[in-house]
Amino acid sequence: MNTRQRLVSLFFALLLSACAASMTKTEGNAWLESKAGPSSERVAGKWTSSGNWTADWGEGNFIQDGWRFYGYMGSYYVDGALNGDHLYLALSSGKKLYYTAILRKAADGSYSGKATPGVLIDAPGAEDGGVVLINLRRVGN
Predict the structure, then answer these.
(1) Which has more pLDDT, 28 or 53?
(2) Which position among 25, 28, 49, 122 has the lowest Cβ density within 10 Å, counted as fewest Cβ atoms?
(3) Over the stretch 21-37, which tens digit does the pLDDT of each residue have?
């Protein structure tokens, strides 16, 4: 096998492994179910991530159902879970899960934390692929 054939083979092997490693919404929802727990937090309504020190994820709008919530944030669909003062997020588009995140409530009522691309954020080595910061502040009442 010549060098060019080896490089092409390596490229396709890496491409296939990347496709196999991508997570689905089903996997994200199973993770969220394992995280959901007692919480008195109310997150239904509009939120924003713009105008602060983190990435601009866009505006969010959530509907809460017990310890779970759903909605949109920017261009992502959000499935979420509450547990105490923590939010657990799975951000997806179509069937593909792009980010998972853990946020904690701050004294001012906002939530701050980090997200990891393509893996469960609390999995061993998850942060090796990089993290993106998230800060959510409620819009209006």
Answers:
(1) 28
(2) 122
(3) 578 999 999 999 999 99
Burial class (CB in 10 A: 0-12, 13-18, 19+), 26: exposed
Q: Which domains does the chain have, with CATH numbers?
A: 23-138 (2.40.128.120)
Q: Rounded to whole angstroms, how far apart are CA atoms 50 and 59?
A: 8
Tokens of 138: 């409620």
Rounded to whole angstroms, the Cα distance separating 25 from 58 reads 21
Task: Tally the C-alpha atoms within 13 A of residue 32's C-alpha that lie toward its C-beta.
Answer: 24
Q: Output the six-digit token pair for 44.
A: 């239904």
DSSP H helices in the chain: 3-21, 25-35
Q: Using an 8 Å Cβ cutoff, are 96 and 103 in contact?
A: no
Q: What is the DSSP letter of 127?
A: G
Average pLDDT rounded to a whole number, residues 58-74: 95
DSSP summary character for residue 78: E
User: Which pLDDT score is estimated for 67?
Assistant: 95
